[in-house]
Amino acid sequence: MNRVPMEGKVLKENDRIAAELRARFREHGVLCLNLIGSPGAGKTSLLERTLEGFGAGTRVAVLTGDIQTDNDAARLARSGFPVRQITTGGTCHLDARMVERAIADWPLPDLDLLLIENVGNLVCPAGYDLGEAAKIVVLSVAEGEDKPLKYPTIFFKAELVVLNKLDLLPYVPFNLAAARENARCVNPAVEFVEVSCVTGQGLPAWHAWLEKRQAQAAEALAAARG
Amino acid sequence: MNRVPMEGKVLKENDRIAAELRARFREHGVLCLNLIGSPGAGKTSLLERTLEGFGAGTRVAVLTGDIQTDNDAARLARSGFPVRQITTGGTCHLDARMVERAIADWPLPDLDLLLIENVGNLVCPAGYDLGEAAKIVVLSVAEGEDKPLKYPTIFFKAELVVLNKLDLLPYVPFNLAAARENARCVNPAVEFVEVSCVTGQGLPAWHAWLEKRQAQAAEALAAARG
């Protein structure tokens, strides 16, 4: 995040819109997840494989953020599910206003799950609440196991770390146990799934996590409604 | 970059300090290079191999930026050359003031080359001039060849793209020709070197580029002095 005097004001306004979005998502029983990772961590590939694993009737939609190009939306739209690109035009993160605009004409009662792919950046997106129920870090094993210590904010705020590109493990100096330890160092409660979007390894565990999280959200909603 | 109203003022102040730094570097014949890349692009490994390739008498120093930890400085200090960590404590990029402070007690007349490793981030560092002679993008082949189109600002501003982790090419869907084409699309004059810090492939070309660039800077300095 830039340490700019106006930042507090901007973040306050973002928090206000995010709180409204969160209330709307809860009201309609939509689980919103905010996927954050470096450029090339494999966020889009993970979403491609995720959508492939869903049945045709799944009530899921995707927002995908990039500074330029709508390549990712084009890739994901092949799934047949609703996908919309947010092109930030230079801004290094998504903010709540961008999400609010992007979903303005989507009927939330028709959705159970909204997956947001943030701009490729392990730093700035951590500071902007999008009204999500949970943040998820996607970390490629090609990036190195030291990243949770170097970029602690996002690992601290995340509920889940998806360790991606497991297929590259034989070729890179990445210690899975050390990566988990480093992430737990900044966030003892963080969960992990380990996947390869190439071989499909671990994708069932990732889908199981999504189902568990949706069930939790549904329970919380039912409890709130008494 | 954040689109914050105060940003213009902050950038103007940054540009002022960067211009002072640039003048000092030129006065003392120091070639300053600003290495920018995603988390895990391999910037520190490239610097490790670069320093290993220098003779003991080489007048080189390194500044390495991270949000947290001084791991990188510890790694690079093994080279025996002067290395200093800049820990930004949350800020997503280095700025000129951080560089000014970090080199305050380094005698510039004793240096020919100052290598700056920016915070791992393909977006925000592109907006902050550090007084460098050139920006260099380090892009790992594990990140995908679409990155120049998705993060055009830094590729537009860079003089050189170091395509890193060539040893992973057999295991990732990365098209070198397409990556070069995409980078030239946003910056027709950009140069390339392709390296593996694991096998050493391409490192002589990278060292040759550094020597060429130092010779150019020395010629420009001599011409300016008449």
Notes on the protein architecture:
Two copies of one chain form a homodimer. Chain A is of the alpha/beta class and 226 residues long. In chain A, 39% of the residues lie in helices and 19% in strands. Chain A has a seven-stranded parallel sheet with strand order 3-2-4-1-5-6-7, sandwiched between helices. The radius of gyration of chain A is 17 Å and the shape is globular. The termini of chain A are far apart. Chain A binds chain B through residues 1-7, 10, 38-40, 66-69, 71, 90-93, 119-124, 140, 142-144, 146-147, 149-153, 165, 167-168, 171-172, and chain B through 1-7, 10, 38-40, 66-69, 71, 90-93, 119-124, 140, 142-144, 146-147, 149-153, 165, 167-168, 171-172.
Task: Give me the secondary-structure topology.
The structure is a homodimer of 226-residue chains.
Chain A: H1 7-27, E1 31-37, H2 43-52, E2 60-66, H3 71-77, E3 83-87, H4 96-102, E4 113-117, E5 134-140, H5 147-150, H6 152-157, E6 158-164, H7 176-186, E7 191-194, H8 203-224
Parallel strand pairs in A: 1-4, 1-5, 2-3, 2-4, 5-6, 6-7
SS-based class of chain A: alpha/beta
Average pLDDT level of chain A: 94
Oligomer: homodimer
List the secondary-structure elements of chain A in sequence, H or E.
HEHEHEHEEHHEHEH
CATH homologous superfamily (4th level) name of chain A = P-loop containing nucleotide triphosphate hydrolases
CATH architecture of chain A: 3-Layer(aba) Sandwich
Largest interface: A-B, 42 and 42 residues
Task: Report helical residue fraction of chain A.
Answer: 25-40%
Whole-number total of structural domains of chain A = 1
Kindly identify the CATH topology of chain A: Rossmann fold
For the terminal residues of chain A, how far apart are their CA atoms?
A: 40 Å
- The number of strands of chain A is 7
Largest β-sheet summary of chain A = 7 strands, parallel
Poorly predicted runs of chain A are none
User: Mind telling me the CATH class of chain A?
Assistant: Alpha Beta
Q: What does the overall shape of chain A look like? A: globular
- Count of helical stretches of chain A: 8
| Beta fraction of chain A | 15-25%
